[in-house]
Design a protein that fits this description.
Blueprint lengths: L9 H10 L12 E7 L18 H8 L2 E7 L5 H10 L3 H4 L23 H10 L1 H4 L4 H5 L5 E6 L13 E2 L24 H12 L4 E6 L11 H8 L5 H26 L6 E7 L22 H4 E7 L7 E3 L4 E2 L3 H9 L15 H6 L3 E6 L13 E8 L2 E6 L9 E4 L15 H14 L6
Parallel strand pairs: 1-5, 1-6, 2-8, 2-9, 3-4, 3-5
Antiparallel strand pairs: 2-7, 6-7, 10-11, 11-12, 12-13
Length: 445
């Protein structure tokens, strides 16, 4: 087992100073926070994770400079509930945002989902915002301490101010193509000027900041710059695969631009950078769409992600290939590092606390329908629950997944889940099912 990571000696002094700041003012020594989110990228699809073709020099550098968990997970493999987890620190069944599109009249009778600008759809989307309105999201937790917060890229929950953002690219108007980010989706693909301007303004006004960088990359449409596509066309006969690989490098380039902006504004030394993906992706060879056992699945191809935390001089860089990390940890880890109160009831841990990390017994997740089945109850949408304890992962189908049985994998020896061990280890299946029931046991499980 890897030795527990160590925080450098600077951390106690920084946290002590932060604890006694005036919560309504900003001090020069307050730390900033940048959260980088990849959109639809497999855990394998980075140079530093061993991909033989995809080149990600900027994320390789970030991984080298960070505490990097190679066994990181998103509890859910669909963007909207995943993003809600990252910003709230709660599992989807806790925050209530379990799918992408809300239920509509006639759904149970097979009626098709209304167009995104139709009044019926807009009303349902507005009604479903009740869930984000009830959350204490990270920007809201930081606001009393003088933080500005900028939303860029993917965003599903209406106006970003609902989650406490003070600044935003997304307008969130569902009647104006505001389904999942609208103007915010231009970031990265069309430049980084809004971030450059935000950093300049916060530094001019001496305000600490929280930056949400969630570009629509490498998400479809897979339309990378020709210079990158040409490079990868020489590496594969599959045009869709070449496009996806090029998109991964394009995303990496924008991450390099973002890190460069931190350097430009002399912010790298006092800015915590967090890296996660919303969910995985395995590209089909014949089309630009995801394959089975990737996005929307409970498999490693859908749920696993490298997770990184960088703060020079405070977080000791190293590659952790043993401990389990989850995106539920982002909020408590950030709050602890900044020296601020952590809301009660969050299921995640402070991964910078070696003792907490060592004591973690398991990580959990849940997969729901893309189209939400109930406005208020997560359980009718449940497809799978999953748990990883040690080397083993159990995937447990819900009652709505007719004809499916539990699957058990040793994901350390068999990370692509090719050998189902459920029949060979029935006692382990039963023990892991008990863990799942202790964690979340709806009637539909």
């Amino acid at each position: 087992m890897n030795a527990p990571h160590r925080l450098l000696l600077a951390l106690p002094a920084i946290c002590f100073a932060l604890l006694f700041q005036d919560p309504t003012s900003a001090e020069d020594d307050q730390l900033n926070v940048v959260v980088i989110l990849s959109d639809d990228q497999a855990w394998t699809d980075y140079s530093f994770m061993g991909h033989p073709q995809i080149e990600t020099p900027n994320l390789d550098r970030l991984a080298k400079e960070s505490l990097t968990f190679t066994r990181g997970y998103s509890p859910v493999s669909l963007c909207r509930p995943s993003l809600a987890t990252i910003i709230s620190g709660l599992y989807p069944h806790q925050h209530g945002i379990v799918g992408n599109d809300p239920p509509w009249a006639g759904m149970e009778d097979g009626k098709r989902r209304p167009a995104h600008n139709e009044p019926a759809y807009v009303k349902a989307r507005m009604d479903y915002l009740q869930h984000v309105d009830q959350l204490d999201c990270q920007p809201e937790l930081l606001a009393p301490h003088g933080y500005r917060s900028l939303q860029t890229g993917k965003w599903w929950e209406g106006k970003p101010a609902r989650a406490g953002f003070t600044d935003a690219m997304t307008h969130g108007d569902f009647t104006r193509n505001g389904r999942h980010g609208d103007e915010g989706l231009k970031v990265g693909r069309e430049g980084m000027q809004v971030i450059d301007d935000f950093l300049a303004d916060t530094q001019d006004k001496k305000q600490p900041f929280y930056l949400w960088y969630a570009p629509f990359l490498p998400h479809t449409p897979h339309n990378p710059p020709e210079r990158l596509l040409a490079k990868y066309r020489d590496k594969t006969d599959s045009l869709p695969m070449a496009k996806y690989w090029a998109m991964c490098e394009w995303f990496d380039e924008t991450c390099g631009e973002l890190l460069g902006l931190l350097d430009k504004h002399s912010l790298a030394e006092n800015t915590l950078v967090v890296y996660v993906t919303d969910n995985g992706w395995i590209n089909e060879t014949a089309a630009s769409r995801y394959a089975p056992r990737s996005k929307r699945s409970p498999n490693e191809g859908g749920t696993r992600t490298p997770i990184m935390y960088r703060l020079p001089g405070v977080i000791e860089p190293r590659m952790d290939t043993t401990h389990l990390a989850s995106t539920i940890d982002v909020v408590p880890t950030v709050q602890h590092l900044l020296g601020f109160e952590v809301p009660e009831g969050l299921p995640g841990i402070d991964v910078l606390d070696a003792d907490e990390l060592e004591l973690r017994d398991a990580v959990y997740g849940e997969i729901f329908e893309h189209d939400i089945q109930s406005m208020d109850d997560p359980s009718p949408s449940l497809r799978y629950r999953w748990v990883i304890q040690g080397d083993y992962k159990l995937i447990d189908p819900s009652s709505r997944m007719t004809g499916q049985s539990p699957e058990l994998y040793n994901v350390v020896k068999d990370p692509h889940e090719n050998q189902n061990l459920a029949d060979q280890k029935p006692e382990m299946v039963e023990a892991l099912q008990s863990l799942l029931d202790e964690w979340y046991s709806p009637d539909s499980a």
